[in-house]
Amino acid sequence: MPDELNPYDKKQEKETLQMPDSHETMPLQNLEEISLREEGTLMPIDDSSEPVKMIMLIKRKSGLTPEEFKKHYEAYHSKLGQKFFGHLMTSYKRNYVALSRQGIGSATRTVEWGYDCITEFIYPNMAARMEVVRLAKVPEIARELREDEAKFADGPATIMMRCEPFDTGTGDGHGSLPFR
């Protein structure tokens, strides 16, 4: 791929894609044909110009308090995310679990959920997400991320998922029950 091509500009022609950590190339007609190789599994990737939302569930390393986990994530690890991938994201939020409840209505009870943070990444499109995947596999970046992750997170327990958000809005309250 010529150096002058911008990987985020879908109007430019793309003839091949260099797979991360590989010398293999694959012909492309469009981004729908890209497959991401993760742990031997091929995952289809679409060519949506829609934003891509990823959610990561993170558990703290054994022996750390929730406060120590949060302090390290905010002071160090989130800064690495900004440094390496910030130019590719439109939003990067960490949601720390303050309380978890199970059940509905009067049958709820407080439970230990097991995850300490729900991290949200929003990318402008799939091309930006794929660039993050590529960068995360660059040996120097991967090493720095993994070394820091080992200081505060239980890496094997981490769950990453792509989500399809639906926003109905909050409504205007018309027809709602009165607040007591």
TrEMBL record:
Pfam families linked to this entry: EthD
Residue ranges of the region described as Disordered: 1-25
Organism lineage string: Bacteria, Pseudomonadati, Pseudomonadota, Alphaproteobacteria, Sphingomonadales
Gene3D superfamilies hit by this protein: 3.30.70.100
Source organism per UniProt: Tardibacter chloracetimidivorans
Example GO molecular function: oxidoreductase activity
Protein name per the record: EthD domain-containing protein
Residue ranges, compositional bias (Basic and acidic residues): 7-24
Coiled coil segments of this chain: none
EthD domain boundaries: 61-155
Signal peptide start-end: none
InterPro entries hit by this protein: Dimeric_a/b-barrel, EthD_dom
